[in-house]
Amino acid sequence: MKYVYHLQSIPHPDQHYVGLTRDVEARLISHNAGQSPHTSKHRPWRIVTYHAFADEAKAAAFEKYLKSGSGLAFRHKHF
């Protein structure tokens, strides 16, 4: 399974991050430990939502969509 996850910074709630992983909990621990340069300055993070996909290509496409302009609007409206 592949998971598309959406994080929100706890100290900076206007900061969000969308990513793709096989293990959501381990990835959250990694982000909160500062191991990702894209998220290290706004830690700690919390999980807003995640979605499971059996098809890796569909997971990658959904992640790409959530990072797009229309996907950003979708995230604001639904999450």
UniProtKB/TrEMBL annotation:
A Pfam family reported for this protein in Swiss-Prot or TrEMBL: GIY-YIG
InterPro entries: GIY-YIG_endonuc, GIY-YIG_endonuc_sf
Highest taxon of source: Bacteria
All copies of domain GIY-YIG, residue ranges: 1-79
Name of the molecule in the record: GIY-YIG nuclease family protein
Organism: Geomonas terrae
